[in-house]
Amino acid sequence: MPAITYNFAYLDEQTKRMIRRAILKAIAIPGYQVPFASREMPMPYGWGTGGVQVTAAILGANDVLKVIDQGSDDTTNAVAIRSFFETTAGVATTTRTRDATIIQTRHRIPEAPLRAGQVIVYQVPIPEPLRFLEPRETETRRLHALSDYGLMQVKLYEDIARHGHIATTYAYPVKVAGRYVMDPSPIPKFDNPKMDDSPALQLFGAGREKRIYAIPPYTRVVSLDFEDHPFAVQAFAEPCALCGAKGVYLDEVILDDKGGRMFVCSDTDHCATRQAEGHTGSMSAPYGEGQP
């Protein structure tokens, strides 16, 4: 059989130009949801088709690509998308945040600070922050046009009335450049402060919903809150059990059926880098032990 050949990064050049035009408009109007003609991809909706299309449109032959899924480089979604671009584009890939020029992510922002020149592409399932408060698309567009976000403030106030604090822990709404309220994708609210004044370009792609939006570098991003209930990120009572990191987002790992558990860095690259530097945690083995 003849070898299967693909256009660079799978998408045809006309589609890439269409997506790049949408990206340029999104950068010009931070936080605004730009419609685009989302294409069928060789993966089901909900598995990152929007992010993949954005990445395919901006990827160049000299780029270095990193793909993460909830902070991990080795979960199914991350491995599949990384393999997809290795096959269709032949670009270099990495698991090191600092070495990547493009980072495609699902539900996390890396712990290592992003730098100027990097692009982070978010996979977004539902781009409309008002969707569960007002299901009519025509109405949510009107609310955005009028900058009328009272519904969102009421939702946050209801959290306080019921729980004594704002209970939203992920997809926490933000206001971009003092204008549009935006869904930052289902990242934990722990990551929201990393979006503010970031030197990296942040792009958001929703394939099923056919929307692209963006946060240009060094843009003000503010999480919604109240004066008497200011925004605050989650706090963890103990450090990472493998590298001893504090002030990072941790995942809970169940060890047995007797209640044994540990907390480890969600960002696998950050954790591995710290271990390589000699940092240890309460349940860590010497770095490299057991490796050939």
UniProtKB/TrEMBL annotation:
Signal peptide: none annotated. It comes from the Bacteria. Keywords: 4Fe-4S, Iron, Iron-sulfur, Lyase, Metal-binding, S-adenosyl-L-methionine. It is an enzyme of class 4 (lyase). GO terms for biological process: organic phosphonate catabolic process. It catalyses: alpha-D-ribose 1-methylphosphonate 5-phosphate + AH2 + S-adenosyl-L-methionine = alpha-D-ribose 1,2-cyclic phosphate 5-phosphate + methane + 5'-deoxyadenosine + L-methionine + A + H(+). GO terms for molecular function: 4 iron, 4 sulfur cluster binding; alpha-D-ribose 1-methylphosphonate 5-phosphate C-P-lyase activity; metal ion binding. This is Alpha-D-ribose 1-methylphosphonate 5-phosphate C-P lyase. It comes from Xanthobacter autotrophicus.
